[in-house]
Design goal:
This protein is mainly beta. The chain has one domain. The protein is 0% helix and 68% strand. It is built from no helices and 4 strands. The chain is globular and about 35 Å long.
């Protein structure tokens, strides 16, 4: 059970996935602060069973055009554009900057 985590100043290129988060519904992954995340990845990934996340200064370039899939989450702030459904067959990489 992870909680009260602060991650900042991360830059990644050539990543397969940005988020691969699966908490337990009875003990969600909670109280995360993620700042200054700059990632180029093949796919956006997913966040499930999580609550009370604040994400700031995100720069995500997603090759397949996908968005972060949210399931069983509450109060996830900072992913508004990246949490919508998008065309996975897009010809150009998806870019998101907050």
């Amino acid at each position: 059970y992870f909680h009260d985590v602060h991650i900042w100043n991360i830059k990644a290129t050539g990543a397969k996935m940005v988020f691969d988060v699966a908490g337990n519904p009875k003990k969600p992954v909670e109280h995360f602060e993620i700042d200054h995340l700059d990632v180029q990845a093949g796919t956006a990934g997913h966040i499930s069973a999580a609550r009370d996340w604040n994400l700031h200064d995100l720069k995500l370039q997603i090759a397949d055009g996908s968005s972060v899939a949210l399931e069983d989450t509450q109060n996830i702030k900072g992913l508004t554009q990246n949490s919508k459904k998008s065309d996975a067959n897009a010809q150009t990489p998806h870019k998101y900057e907050e």
